[in-house]
Amino acid sequence: EQQLRMAIRPGADLGLQLYLQPKVDLRCESVVGAEVLLRWHHPEKGMISPADFIPLAEESRLIIELDRWVFQRSCELLRDWQRAGRPVPSISINLSARQLQEPDLVDWCLDQIKIFGLQPAMLELEITETAFINLSDQVLEQLHALKLAGFHLALDDFGTGYSSLTYLRRLPLDVVKIDRSFVADLCQDPRAATLLKGVMRLLDEMGFGVVAEGIETADQSNLLQRIRCQLGQGFLYHRPMPVGSFVELLDKAP
Ligand code: G
Ligand code: G
Ligand code: MN
Ligand code: NA
User: Fold this and answer.
1) Domain 2-252 adopts which CATH fold?
2) DSSP secondary-structure letter at 234?
3) Which positions fall inside the EAL domain (predicted)?
4) Residue ID of nearest Cα to ligand 1 atom 12
């Protein structure tokens, strides 16, 4: 924890790095955006997965600082791309639930957007379903304020929380990300396929964008397309990659 704190100090270069996982249009495989995923190349321990250090950070306010560090580094990226005259793809950032309990969250985000000369709509904020176990008025208010400010909101890991349908009804969402456990079962389990087909129709009628996560096989992708899911992420297309590789990928595109 102490080392993580050091790593996000201004000017520190202690191995924390943004990776980007491209989000693609399943029909033509073109890159339409990316999700920012944190990586930590620890000086002695090697690569540490966020699955290991995010839960540690979530035990204290460190997660607030860590997510804000990611937010700022992501803004920096967008600003650099914008300055270089590149078309700027939409970027998604994971926000921990604790962040939604910070009274200054919306003002802080808007300040950063202003400092970096960006528009809120360039960023999509992903909030995991499991974060909403107690959906307080304060959290709802924050989400509405973020949405009103122009940020796009995505519900992450859809289908794994305690009250998925309630979230769809009450949260001001733009995008729903189908959890990869549904995608994993799609081709083996007819009930998973039927379920997802119905869910897709529901999400479509409610006007949400949908992104399928964890697509690993062409069969999964084909089935997803048949049930009208158009966007996805997964190892079949691209693994999370360093920023330089992502830029190369964009440059290679026709
Ligand atoms: O990239 P990977 O699959 O290893 O990520 C593991 C978990 O860590 C995922 O649930 C992902 O959402 C989470 N995660 C990755 N980067 C960040 C981040 O910057 N902030 C937060 N809050 N979670 C992240
Ligand atoms: O919780 P969240 O959806 O933000 O986490 C994304 C995580 O999923 C990251 O850790 C990323 O590395 C991982 N991931 C991305 N694509 C795939 C995939 O196709 N298969 C698997 N198993 N994991 C994936
Ligand atoms: Mn995510
Ligand atoms: Na997810």
Assistant:
1) TIM Barrel (3.20.20)
2) B
3) 1-254
4) 94
Helix or strand or coil: residue 233?
coil
Tokens of 130: 């499991």
ipTM over 0.85: yes
Tell me the C-alpha distance between 123 and 93, whole Å.
7
- With a 6 Å cutoff on the Cβ, whether 54 touches ligand 1 is yes
Q: Which residue has the tokens 């096989």?
A: 217
The domain segmentation of the chain, as residue ranges, is 2-252
What distance in Å separates the CA atoms of residue 254 and residue 252, rounded to the nearest whole number? 6
- The answer to whether the CB of 245 is under 6 A from ligand 1 is no
Work out the angle between the directed axes of helices 50-58 and 62-83 (0-180°, nearest 10).
Answer: 120
- Give tens-digit pLDDT for 205-240: 999 999 999 999 999 999 999 999 999 999 999 999
